[in-house]
């Protein structure tokens, strides 16, 4: 977490790190464990097109990414990246993916429904740890494009 803490300090991001039991592997259970609604918890999804151009989408864990809506913006048909591609692109294993300190830079899209909350939870890149941050701060530090993704 020290690299991430340094990243947040350098970027002047106020956040809280909240640990939870490492045996919790379901995002809905993690939300409950840290006291957030499922719609406040974010999953970081990597999707790509036939040419292997990838993007990351930040969406609530209780919603499904609408690939057709995303395709209208990217102007191409998008599909979910394989676990091998996800780890190779981000440096994180599926289930711990976060939009910070990525192995490779990606365009990031964030569902605008997340802005209704004063705080949201997102993975730190490690099992058993979430960070809670203001969604506007998350958008700023990731340079995410806001759009309706669900």
TrEMBL record:
Signal peptide: none annotated. Residues 22-140 form the YbaK/aminoacyl-tRNA synthetase-associated domain. Transmembrane segments: none annotated. InterPro entries: YbaK/aa-tRNA-synt-asso_dom_sf (IPR036754), YbaK/aa-tRNA-synth-assoc-dom (IPR007214). GO terms for molecular function: aminoacyl-tRNA deacylase activity. It holds the Pfam family tRNA_edit. PANTHER family: CYTOPLASMIC PROTEIN. This is YbaK/aminoacyl-tRNA synthetase-associated domain-containing protein.
